[in-house]
Amino acid sequence: MGRKLNTTLPSLRTNPHSQSPNLPLLYDKEQWYRDNQSNAYNRRHAARQAPELHLGDSVYIKDLGRPGSVAAQHHNPWSYIVLTDQGTVRRNRSHLVATDASGQSQSDSMTPKTPTPVPRAVSPAVSGSTPTVAEPSSPGRPQVTRSFHQRNLTFRSL
Q: Distance between CA atoms of 157 and 146, rounded to whole angstroms?
């Protein structure tokens, strides 16, 4: 604890645990544990530093939902003064998405515009068996029946 304990309990004067810890060594060890834990967390969750924004960069403000441009860097860490069409605002870097001049975010420009078709999975046909489909008994709810069992496979049809 770093100080002499005042107690009414009797104790030996030569108590081996009465020594104060080496505080600089203790602080260094605690800092090492903190750094080690933060590095492990960042590695596990793929955390990374956002790139720094420069004067005049086009940004999209997430919470306002509108574009703007960086007017200045605020004295608080990771804060920027952003000029929008409705005035100036101060925002943290986490609320700003860097965009190119056309207003498209830089992460969106790397993704293709048209979706690529995904091939459908084709199940192998079992020869000699035709699945049967049961007619629904009520118009609102289809009935599920087992069509056949073969080679330890169970197929269902609606």
A: 7
